[in-house]
Amino acid sequence: MAGDAVLLLGNDWASLCLARRGKVHAVHPLPPAAQAVDRLRALAGGREVRVLLDVVEEEYVVSVVPPAGRRDRKLMIERRLAVAFETTPWRLGLALRPQAGDPSGCRVLLCGLTAPGRIRPWLSALRAAGSPLVGLYSLPLISAALLPTCGLQKGAAALLSQRPGGGLRMSFLVDGQLLASRLLPVYPAADTGFAWQDALGRLRPWLEQAGCLRPETPLAIGLLGNAGLLETLRAALAQVPNSRVHALDLSALARRYGCASGAPSSPEDALFAACLLQRLPAEQYATAADRADWRARRRRRLGRDLLAACCVAMSLCSLALTRLGLRAAQDAAALAAENQSLAASLKVQQQALPPRFIEPAAGLALREFCRDLAAAAHPLLPALDELAAPLAAAPALRWTQIEWPAQGQATGLLLHGEVHPFDGDYGAALAAIEQLLEGLRQRPAIRAAVLHQSPLPTPGAAAQVIRSDGASARFTLGLALRGAGDASGH
C-alpha cells in the first residue's frame, strides 16, 4: 500500500508528510519549489498529494446572502466571490450555521487565496515529479477538527498554534465554524515567549476591532505549543482578561491523532496533516484544471478496477456454472445407475418367473403347475393348497395365465381367466366370479382377493379395468397370499 502524502506550504517553508491509513509517520522539509522536483519524486514516489496551505495571503469575508432558492443562492455566492477575490481562481463560499441574533438570510464565509504566484510553482513541481494534485486545502479551516479534542467546540474560541520558523497562527471560531484567521510572523531574533505573550495580549482587541467578538463575550483560547513554551507562558496565561486558556502540548496531541512518536521532526505539521487525512473536507480550493492529472489517473484506476471486477465476476460465474454442471453430471450418473439397477431388477424378475399359460385341463392342478415355476422351499407354496377347493367349486371358470411373484418380491399373484362357455349373459358370468371371490376371501392363507379386470361394467369399486371380448368374458384376479412364515396367517 503506497499510503498518503500531504504537502504543507507556508510563506517561506514547505514540508512533505507521509502517512499510512491516516497516521503520519514522517515529515520531510523541502527546498524551494525550483529545486524540490527530485526530492518530491524520491519521497512521494508518484503518490497522489494533497496540499495544505498555511499562508498569510488567505483572506476571509463574512457576507449575508438574502433568502433565495438553492440555485439563485449559489449564483449570488459566486458573484460575491468574484468581486471579493477577482485576482485569484482559488476561492470558496462556505455556508455558516445561523447564530442567535443573526439577520434574516444565510451567512456565508467567503475565502480566497490572494497570492497565486506563491502556490503555482509548487503545483508545477508536483506535476514534474509525477504526483497528481488531489486538492488544495486551508489549514485554518482544517483546524476546526481539533476543537472537539480540545473541548472548544461550543461558543467563541480562538486556536493559537506554533508554526515552523516561529510563526503564530491565530484562528477565531464560533461553535466550530471558522470566521477569521491570521498568521503572525515571528522573526528568529525575537524572543518566542515574548512573541506569544504579545499575541495573547492583542488577541481580544483584534477580534473586537474586526467585529467578531463583543467585549462582554467570554473567549476560550486553545494554546498549541511544546511543553517548554507552555511552561514559560504559564504566568502570562492567567492575565488574559475574560478568557479561559487551555494549554495543549503539540507532541502529545500529535500522538493522540496517531502520529508516530519521535518520527515526525515537526509535530505541528504532523498534527494538521493527520487532521486533514482523517476528516477530508468536501470543499477545497483546487479547480478542475488543477486536478486534471488526478482525475485522469482515477478514471484509469476505475477502469482497471472495473475490468478486474468483471474478470472476478466471470470467474465466479464460471465456477458456479462448473459446480452446477458437475452436480448435474453427478445427478445424471446417479439416475443412470438407478435406472440401470431398476432395469436389471425387472429383467431378473421377468427371467426368474415369467408368465406361463395353463392348459385348461390342468386348471385345478395349480400346485403341481407351480412346482415347475418355483423352488420347493418357496414360502407361498403351502398357500396354494388353499386355492384348490375354491377353484374346484367354480367349474365355469377357465384359467389361461398365471403371473407368479419372484423371490423377495411382494406376495401377490395374478390369475387370468375366462368364463367358458360364455353365451353373452354377463350377469351370470359376474355372479360366478363373485362367488369365487367370496370363497377365496374365506381362506386363511389368502389375505385379499380383488377383481382387477372385469368382463363388463359393474357398479362398485371391485372392477378397475373393464373389458369385453365378445364370445368370451375374460377377467383377472389379484390375490395376496400369506407365506409359511407369516405370523398373520395364524
| Lateral strand order in the biggest sheet | 14-15-16-19-17-18
- Could you describe the largest sheet, including whether it forms a barrel? 6 strands, mixed
Computed over alpha carbons, the radius of gyration is: 51 Å
Helical fraction: 25-40%
Number of strands: 19
- Cα-to-Cα separation, first versus last residue: 86 Å
Could you walk me through the main structural features you see in this protein, from its secondary elements to its overall organization?
The structure is a single chain. With 490 residues, the chain is of the alpha/beta class. It has 14 helices and 19 strands. The protein has helices at 37-44, 70-84, 116-128, 139-142, 147-150, 192-209, 227-232, 234-237, 250-256, 267-278, 292-352, 366-371, 381-392, 426-441, and strands at 4-9, 14-20, 23-29, 49-53, 58-65, 91-95, 106-113, 133-138, 156-162, 168-174, 177-184, 219-225, 243-249, 356-357, 397-403, 412-419, 446-454, 465-466, 473-481. The strands form four sheets. Strands 14-15-16-19-17-18 form a six-stranded mixed β-sheet. Strand 1 (4-9) and strand 2 form a beta hairpin. The longest helix is centred in the middle third of the chain and has 61 residues, at 292-352. It is rod-shaped. The relative contact order is 0.08. The model is unreliable at 350-354, 360-364 and 458-467 (pLDDT under 50).
